[in-house]
Design a protein that fits this description.
This protein is α+β, with helices and mostly antiparallel strands and about 450 residues long. Helices cover about 45% and strands about 25% of the residues. β6 and β7 form a beta hairpin. Pfam families: Neur_chan_LBD (PF02931), Neur_chan_memb (PF02932). One of its GO terms (molecular function) is GABA-gated chloride ion channel activity.
């Protein structure tokens, strides 16, 4: 029983295999019946697994591109997505036929012919459009030339240098290479040189404009051999107008807004602190927003980062300026006294002169009326200085010596106070002068820094 069951299973498998072979043969016959007689004659004895001129040197494949669109250019992923029409031409001596017209075949018949194994080198993801059918074109000319066209959407890597972002120029490439056939088997060339690529003149991009493009031919060297490679270079220039309106103008206006505090009185502490802190926080938010659309993994110091750092420094400097000016007011009298300090000083000098003049007249009259009262003090003074050995002279020395160290200490304290005032107030007699100088120095320095910034990043 076990033997009969196994025999039945083997018989069933053989029967199914026979039926499948018969259906495949019938399908091939039906497919051959729908082919035109010319194609049937060309396909008779044709081996698609062997390249043309298998024993007579390499086959030359000419290529041309038509850029349909460049959808996205990503700085974060450093790639671009493009839809292209890739056209390849080569000559196959086995497909020569008599006639004056070319044969346009259905794209599905490409499975019957040999085609180059071309691939996109830096492609991350690619697909062939298949709506409503696979977007392929096969055309055979009487001399055996085959035109093979494809519609491909591919995402290609592009190494970008973002040090001058957003005033940067990026050069991206599209490289076509043979996967299995080396230069001894296949040779690639551009059919019309730099004019082999079309569609860039009418291309509309969101942030870029195509400035230049050109083609080149090279060889890819691997461990398995040298392979033919075609390279298409195109240069993209970023449009800066969007970033001027989005980032540069708001950041510059924030800097100008921080200067408003220079025209507000030093006594208005809440108003000046509010302006300084608000502009600092707003500038920080603007800097964080500008970084979200850029890659964080790289180490680029971009031009926009430099400008935002400059604006943040000026805004923070305006806040520090008020802190310094307010601190200087703590070591000075009231501002009203500062304004009229020089006038009051001159008035005091005049009053002191008048009082001195008035007091000098009675002393002179007294000396005229009492001329004999002046001589007695003179001998006493001379007596003290001439007779140092007398007991009275020895008692006068301790009384005359203390004023000297006291005067020295007072002069030292006065010098120390002057040094501290010069350090704390930076030789500013009136704290209001700090705001006055800031109204000039901050705008002038900001204009100079902007001139240096734009000159460097636009022309160097």
């Amino acid at each position: 029983m076990a033997v009969s069951a196994s025999g039945r299973t083997v018989f069933t498998i053989l029967l199914i295999s026979r039926l499948l072979e018969g259906s495949l043969l019938n399908a091939e016959m039906k497919e051959g019946e729908i082919l035109p007689p010319t194609i049937q004659r060309l396909m008779k004895g044709y081996n698609k697994y062997l390249r043309p001129f298998f024993d007579d040197g390499p086959v030359t494949v000419g290529m041309s591109l038509d850029i349909a669109s460049i959808d996205t250019i990503s700085e974060i992923n450093m790639d671009y997505t493009a839809t292209i029409f890739l056209r390849q031409r080569w000559t196959d001596e086995r497909l020569v036929f008599e006639g004056n017209k070319s044969l346009s075949l259905d794209g599905r018949l490409v499975e019957l012919l040999w085609v180059p194994d071309t691939f996109i080198v830096d492609s991350k993801k690619s697909f062939l459009h298949d709506i409503t059918v696979e977007n392929r074109l096969i055309r055979i000319f009487p001399n055996g030339t085959v035109l093979y066209a494809l519609r491909i959407t591919t995402t290609v890597a592009c190494n970008m240098d973002l040090t001058k972002y957003p005033m940067d120029k990026q050069t991206c490439t599209l490289q076509l290479e043979s996967w299995g056939y080396n230069i001894n088997d296949v040779m690639f060339y551009w059919t019309r040189g730099n004019e082999s690529v079309s569609g860039l003149d009418t291309l509309q991009l969101a942030q870029y404009t195509v400035e230049d493009h050109y083609t080149s031919v090279s060889e890819a060297v691997y461990e398995t051999g040298n392979y033919p490679r075609l390279v298409f270079h195109f240069e993209l220039k970023r449009s800066i107008l969007y970033f001027i309106l989005e980032t540069y103008v708001p950041s510059s206006l924030l800097v100008v807004l921080s200067w408003v505090s220079f025209w507000i009185s030093l006594s208005s502490v809440p108003a000046r602190i509010c302006i300084g802190v608000t502009t600092v926080l707003t500038m920080t938010t603007l800097m964080m927003g500008a970084r979200t659309s850029l890659p964080n993994a790289n180490c680029f110091i971009k031009a926009i980062d430099v400008y935002l750092g400059i604006c943040f420094s000026f805004i923070f400097g305006a806040l520090i300026e008020y802190a310094v000016a307010h601190f200087c007011t703590l070591t000075h009298p009231d501002t009203h006294l500062l304004m009229y300090g020089h006038r009051m000083h001159d008035f005091d000098d005049e009053m002191n002169g008048i009082v001195t003049t008035i007091s000098s007249h009675p002393s002179r009259a007294k000396r005229r009326k009492e001329p004999a009262a002046s001589p007695p003090p003179a001998p006493a003074a001379t007596e003290l200085t001439v007779t140092p050995s007398s007991p009275s002279g020895s008692e006068a020395k301790p009384e005359a010596s203390p004023p000297e160290p006291t005067n020295w200490c007072l002069s030292a304290m006065a010098i120390l106070c002057k040094v501290l005032r010069s350090i704390y107030c930076c030789h500013v007699e009136n704290p209001h002068h700090i705001d006055y100088y800031s109204r000039l120095t901050f705008p002038m320095s900001f204009v100079m820094v902007n001139l240096l910034y734009w000159t460097y990043y636009l022309y160097f």
